[in-house]
Amino acid sequence: MRDRIAFLHTGAWGDLYVATAALREACDAHPGLSCYVVGSDKWIHILDRRSWPEIEGIVATKEGWSGELFSWDETTGAWSR
Fold it and tell me: Which residues pair with 70 in a beta bridge?
């Protein structure tokens, strides 16, 4: 069994909320799962690691070509580069 996944999202805000529900279901179905979320920087604004401990990082992409890895900063309580 794998213990780490990447969760991909493309689309606008409505799609993002649907993808967030799918992410929650995946995390709930697989306790101990570790994942990275890949998609727009909108994820940074709605996912708080204190509520999503499964998420190791967010790769915010620019037009689907490249991305920056954001990690949770315990000091600031926010995602940072």
Answer: 58
Quote the pLDDT of residue 3: 63
Helix (H) or strand (E) holding 67: strand 66-73
Structural tokens at position 23: 């992410």
- The reported pLDDT for the residue numbered 30 is 85
Residue 2's pLDDT band (boundaries 50, 70, 90)?
Answer: low
Instruction: With beta carbons less than 8 A apart as the criterion, state whether 38 and 7 touch.
Output: yes
3-state secondary structure of 13: helix
Q: Which two tokens stand for residue 32?
A: 């101990």
Give CA–CA dist 16/11, Å, rounded.
Answer: 7
